[in-house]
């Protein structure tokens, strides 16, 4: 673990008293390696290490095991802060001035959007709301059936319309929600590549027409270096208000969490922790920080 | 990077960045660069052009050498391909693509819808079957996946089909009971006296270092004969496959390059490396 490696580094330092800047650089190299191995994107690792270096120099880190522990604490605290800080508490979905409150889900292929849509629907239903699921993926074979099946299992209605382009379908769904008294609309969209201009324009258009209070980037916890590009492009081309990190029940270190949070600058609101509809939890920065540091 | 430039610290740094950002990983990046620095010191690399060629060579060789070639189909017998992997990586879509590919080559292919768990998984494969004009053997959702496999193999014999592609539910390699279920499926196939059986792991090109753990655990459960790297049409480079092939010693057989049925190609190490260091 990083803590073992830092203790090893500090044990080998030969000077007395306060750790020198050069010694600190040796320690920081271990931090860099640990974060890269945890899948934090390189440019985010560099920013992070610079921030830690500043804090460590300011803290007048000492020799020996005490020094190693000081650096670990600085790293951990900085990581928690960069992940959004605090204990998180119950994650809240943004709301519009008036219902229905739209929650739009976007992301790469296979990241867990459809499953997450059903999880959000269950959560809202349990909170006493009336959510409407919207099947706005007309491309993937049986995508609509998938959401309908999930909706039926949860007793949540699913809006769909064959042969309606997703931006039109989304607007129809809002009208339907207003008419039938749904106060939340959860919009499941097709998986897409950030380098697919047509598909990125599609979600940008849906966003433009609906102006949803919540646009969630649904991303896989096992995502590697590409996380920075995903966060950047979805944020620039669509505009996102939050992130859901799925498949956190895997043993992926989850460094993508730091990349996504730091590049998009929006909170990670939820994590997916199983394939089931109740597998959605609030994001806790301190837990993810410990996991990333291994 | 390709333009002629001096071989200095900046160039080594840029190369390190390139490899790390491609998900090659810390250890392998260090190994590759250390070897190239050695070749440079020994005078075997003179220009940045040489350096790039040497890098291309080192990476392509790493993929070719670690794993012996493997054919999914053996002539004159029934070949079964068990497709496995974690959730959402592209197993079902890759099976549709492979099925169409083998059918084009003149094989008689049957698809087995052995993901009886996920919502609309069977529907999804059935639609692909219709599009590719391939028969799909399926039971109802919640059925025992092993019984679907058993049926598909019997059907293959009855219809003299020579290839059975088996779709399985996505599963995290950390889930003991799901990995046990997979072992049971493999035992059912083995008991059927199928002439040629392969297990193929699908790895998503956007995956980071966790792909190594995935490969290790799936290999431990059922053995692996090959890999498919999906979603290489995206911005992710899939560099983790170097660590994966080093870990489990199996060849990459195909790459997925899109969501259409024709978006699959034979794996070519030179093309893959060129796109990575591109
Ligand atoms: N273990 C686990 N599996 C998950 C989680 N979230 C989703 N999945 C699984 O991941 C796979 C993909 O989920 P989908 O909801 O179909 O993903 P998607 O983003 O809608 O996929 P596309 O629509 O094709 O882009 C399915 O097998 C899900 O059951 C999670 O938090 N944990
Ligand atoms: N761009 C791109 N998308 C792909 C590729 N392969 C699969 N996909 C997409 O990835 C998503 C998931 O594909 P599936 O075939 O359902 O993945 P899976 O592994 O069977 O998923 P589960 O059964 O839920 O575990 C779908 O939206 C596919 O269209 C590929 O090579 N490129
Ligand atoms: Mg979906
Ligand atoms: Mg599938």
Describe the structure.
The complex is a heterodimer of chains A (294) and B (278). Chain A has 294 residues and is α/β, with parallel strands linked by helices. In chain A, 51% of the residues lie in helices and 14% in strands. Chain A is built from eleven helices and eight strands. In chain A, strands 3-2-4-1-5-6-7-8 form an eight-stranded mixed β-sheet, sandwiched between helices. In chain A, strand 2, helix 6 and strand 3 form a beta-alpha-beta unit. Chain B has 278 residues and is α/β, with parallel strands linked by helices. Helix content of chain B is 48%, strand content 15%. Chain B has an eight-stranded mixed β-sheet with strand order 3-2-4-1-5-6-7-8, sandwiched between helices. In chain B, helix 8 runs parallel beside helix 9. The radius of gyration of chain B is 20 Å and the shape is elongated. The model of chain B has no long low-confidence stretch (mean pLDDT 96). The structure holds guanosine-5'-triphosphate (2 copies) and magnesium ion (2 copies). One guanosine-5'-triphosphate sits at the interface of chains A and B.
């Amino acid at each position: 673990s990083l803590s073992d490696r830092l203790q090893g580094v500090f044990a080998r330092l030969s000077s007395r008293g306060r750790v020198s800047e050069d010694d600190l650089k040796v320690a920081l190299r271990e931090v860099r390696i640990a974060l890269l191995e945890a899948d934090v994107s390189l440019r985010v690792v560099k920013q992070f290490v610079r921030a830690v270096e500043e804090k460590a120099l300011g803290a007048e880190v000492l020799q020996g095991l005490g020094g190693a522990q000081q650096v670990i604490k600085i790293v951990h605290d900085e990581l928690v802060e960069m992940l959004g800080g605090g204990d998180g508490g119950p994650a809240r979905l943004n709301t519009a001035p008036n219902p229905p409150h739209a929650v739009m889900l976007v992301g790469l292929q296979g990241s867990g959007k459809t499953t997450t849509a059903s999880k959000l629907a269950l959560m809202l239903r349990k909170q006493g709301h009336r959510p409407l699921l919207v099947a706005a993926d007309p491309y993937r074979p049986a995508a609509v059936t998938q959401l309908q099946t999930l909706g039926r299992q949860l007793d949540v209605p699913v809006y769909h319309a064959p042969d309606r382009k997703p931006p039109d379908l989304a607007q129809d769904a809002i009208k339907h929600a207003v008419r039938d008294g749904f106060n939340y609309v959860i919009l499941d969209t097709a998986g897409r590549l950030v380098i697919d201009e047509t598909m990125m324009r599609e979600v940008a258009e849906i966003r433009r027409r609906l102006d949803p209070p919540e646009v969630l980037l649904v991303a896989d916890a096992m995502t590697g270096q590409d996380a920075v590009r995903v966060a950047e492009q979805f944020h620039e081309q669509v505009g996102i208000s939050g992130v859901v990190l799925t498949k956190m029940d895997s043993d992926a270190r989850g460094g993508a969490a730091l990349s996504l949070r730091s590049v998009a600058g929006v909170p990670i609101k939820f994590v997916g922790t199983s394939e089931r509809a109740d597998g959605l939890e609030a994001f806790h920065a301190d837990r993810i920080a410990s996991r990333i540091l291994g | 990077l390709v333009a002629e430039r001096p071989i200095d610290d900046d160039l080594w740094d840029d190369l390190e960045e390139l490899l790390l950002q491609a998900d090659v990983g810390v250890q392998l990046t260090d190994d590759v660069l250390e070897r190239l620095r050695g070749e440079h010191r020994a005078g075997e690399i003179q220009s940045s052009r040489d350096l790039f060629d040497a890098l291309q060579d080192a990476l392509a060789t790493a993929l070719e050498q670690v794993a012996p070639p493997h054919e999914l189909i053996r002539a004159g017998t029934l070949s079964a391909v068990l497709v496995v992997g974690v959730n959402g990586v592209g197993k079902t879509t890759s099976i549709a693509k492979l099925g169409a590919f083998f059918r084009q080559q003149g094989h008689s292919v049957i698809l087995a819808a052995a993901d009886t768990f996920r919502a609309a998984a069977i529907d999804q494969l059935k639609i692909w079957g219709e599009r590719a004009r391939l028969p799909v053997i399926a039971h109802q959702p919640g059925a025992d996946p092993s019984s679907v496999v058993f049926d598909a193999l019997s059907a293959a014999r009855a219809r003299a089909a020579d290839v059975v592609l088996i779709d399985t539910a996505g599963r995290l390699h950390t889930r003991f009971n799901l990995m046990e279920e997979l072992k049971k499926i493999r035992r059912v196939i083995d008991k059927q006296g199928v002439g040629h059986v392969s297990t193929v792991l699908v790895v998503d090109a956007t995956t980071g270092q966790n792909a190594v753990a995935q490969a290790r655990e799936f290999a431990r459960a059922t053995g692996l004969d090959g890999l498919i790297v999906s979603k290489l049409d995206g911005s992710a480079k899939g560099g983790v496959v170097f660590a994966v092939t080093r870990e489990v010693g199996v060849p990459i057989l195909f790459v997925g390059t899109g969501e259409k049925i024709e978006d699959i190609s034979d794996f070519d190490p030179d093309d893959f490396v060129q796109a990575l260091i591109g």
